[in-house]
Design goal:
By secondary structure, chain A is of the alpha/beta class. In chain A, 38% of the residues lie in helices and 21% in strands. In chain A, the strands form three sheets. In chain A, strands 2, 3, 4, 5, 6, 7, 8 and 13 form an eight-stranded mixed sheet that branches. In chain A, strands 10-12-11-14-15 form a five-stranded mixed sheet, with helices on both faces. Chain B is globular and about 40 Å long. Classes of the chains: A alpha/beta, B alpha/beta.
Chain lengths: 375, 186
């Protein structure tokens, strides 16, 4: 045993380091600042670089540039900063540059509640940048997961050549609890593919059968063009409809064809459940406690916790919806993931939100009351 | 046996209560318990209401916030007025009488009044060690963690060179707490 009491934000930064992240470009903002603090302290010790940029727009640009040199990269922000990153996040989606963007959600909109929790960036994480684009979004519920899932986020970014949003919330970011480092020391680390052809034969965006391009690190003799314009396999802009259609389709397919690899979740007591709670992030902790109490009172209540929020685990939700009286969705927003759950449930069951936007976390009692209303 | 401590440390930003909460949680983990520590505070670096919450349990802890504390430390009048109302009769409340002057609104039978900030100044010459004196008092009174664990946890989390001062503060708090406990028992 090698237990340390650590904060979620700190665990996220240490997970990034363990995954091989060697560049951080960022601009500090509550409640994410500790991620930057740890990276600033630790990166120089392992030969990495930390740059505090002038704002979040530049931070996002910096991590994209660093990633193109082959480095694994991370940036961390919250609400207003996440909004500023959106344009360049879209650029990373289209240019297929791996990066992990941590968003420790706080109350919004605008400057909102800088030190209070929220889960109101769920839809923004998916649709914040314009245009159809793929994105992977992961949400941790424990300090240990802040570590292990950051490793996974970096792995997925490198494997699928895509930005990954690590969607935390203030409760998890600032929560301290023990993490046993003996349990997390042998996590799998995925490295980006390198070209297996010579620079002369190399075509940057000619993805193989898996639909994932191999981008050579800049400075290694491979020359290619990177642009935010819709481009062809050579990386040069094009408006030719068949090429545009082909490239856009491939961009989505590289994620959509690998849902089983990308989507992870935790489930408990789903068999025989009359009501299933669907919750993520810190609200999943409230839901778990509520489930314990309800189970102790002989109520058949289960829990489904999406760990990957986007792409959304709709197949699993559809299955649950066919078997229960209701799905109850506690979230610290006005009902964002609930919309997606309703879509996946397709009228097979009632979907009831437990929503709270006052800057305080949802209590187990509030969830229990909602469940009692349908049982 | 299910055992759960819901401890709230409340006062003003800058008093070091969040650090106090971290130290208490670390000590509990050293003793083999599960612990979570959380906090809430305003945007100010100093001033404004601040609270740290520590839950200690021999089982897994899911919901990390406290509804009704069974142990409360109050280090400002505002904190006392705000949180003492939630306190049940069987809860333990520890009050810094240097800063809380109007006492009596709580129902707690186990009420410990200690001039924590004054004691810090007297023992170490530094008011800023009041959080460590308070930790000493909490451990002296409640025995929620062992003396060895709290000492080790304090030493791990304080700046180098302040070990002696902080041990003095911790011991002063433990002594004050234990003496008060004996007085009340007799």
């Amino acid at each position: 045993m090698n237990k340390k009491v650590m904060q979620g934000n700190e665990a996220c930064a240490h997970g990034a380091l363990a995954a091989g992240v060697r560049f951080f470009g960022g601009y500090p903002i509550t409640p994410s600042t500790e991620v930057a603090e740890v990276m600033a302290k630790e990166l120089p010790k392992v030969g990495g670089k930390f740059i505090q940029m002038e704002d979040e727009i530049a931070s996002m640009a910096a991590v994209i540039g660093a990633s193109l040199t082959g480095k694994k990269v991370l940036t961390a922000t919250s609400g207003p900063g996440f909004s500023l990153k959106q344009e360049n996040l879209g650029y990373a989606c289209l240019t297929e540059v791996p990066c992990v963007v941590v968003n420790v959600q706080r109350g919004g909109p605008s400057t909102g509640l800088p030190t209070s929790p929220a889960q109101s960036d769920v839809m923004q994480a998916k649709w914040g940048t314009h245009g159809d684009h793929p994105i992977i979004v992961i949400s941790p519920s424990t300090v240990k997961e802040c570590y292990t899932l950051t490793v996974r986020a970096v792995n997925l970014a490198e494997k699928y050549m895509t930005p990954v949003v690590f969607l935390m919330d203030e409760v998890i970011g600032h929560l301290r609890e023990p993490i046993d480092f003996d349990e997390v020391k042998d996590l799998e680390v995925v490295d980006r593919k390198k070209p297996d052809v010579s620079p002369e034969e190399y075509v940057s965006y000619a993805a193989g059968e898996d639909g994932i391009p191999v981008l050579a690190p800049f400075g290694t003799g491979y020359r290619y063009h990177v642009t935010g314009l819709t481009h062809d396999e050579q990386g040069f802009s094009t408006m030719a409809p068949p090429v545009v259609a082909r490239m856009n389709q491939r961009l989505m397919d590289k994620i959509d064809n690998n849902l089983d690899d990308i989507i992870t979740f935790e489930s408990e007591n789903l068999e025989d459940a009359d009501v299933v709670l669907v919750a993520y992030g810190s609200s999943a902790r409230s839901a778990k406690e509520a489930m314990r109490w309800l189970n102790a009172a002989d109520q058949n209540v289960g829990l489904f916790r999406p760990i990957t929020i986007w792409p959304f685990p709709e197949k699993e939700i559809r299955k649950i919806a066919g078997n229960v009286k209701a799905i109850v969705v506690p979230e610290m927003n006005m009902g964002q993931l609930k919309l997606e759950i309703e879509r996946a449930a397709a009228g097979l069951t009632k979907v009831i939100g437990v929503n709270k936007v006052d800057g305080e976390p949802i209590t187990p009692e509030e969830i229990i009351n909602a469940v009692k209303g349908v049982l | 046996m299910f055992e759960k401590w819901d401890i709230r440390l409340s006062g003003t930003g800058g008093q070091g209560l969040i650090l106090g909460g971290i130290i208490l949680a670390s000590a509990a983990v050293k003793d083999g318990f599960n612990a979570v520590q959380s906090q809430s505070y305003g945007p100010e670096a100093r001033g404004g209401a601040s609270k740290a919450e520590v839950i200690i349990s021999n089982q897994e802890i899911f919901y990390p916030k406290i509804a009704n504390a069974n142990t409360l430390l109050a280090m400002s009048q505002q904190a006392y007025d705000k949180y003492c109302v939630d306190i049940t009769e069987d809860a333990t409340i520890i009050i810094d009488s240097t800063l809380v002057k109007n006492i009596g609104a709580d129902k707690a039978k186990k009420r410990f009044i200690i001039p924590i900030t004054e004691l810090a100044k007297k023992e170490t010459g530094r008011e800023m060690t009041a959080n460590i004196v308070a930790l000493g008092a909490i451990v002296g009174i409640t025995k929620v963690v062992s003396e060895e664990a709290i000492k080790e946890a304090v030493l791990e989390r304080i700046p180098a060179g302040t070990e002696e001062m902080n041990m003095k503060a911790l011991n002063a708090g433990m002594k004050a707490g234990q003496e008060l406990l004996q007085t009340m028992a007799s």
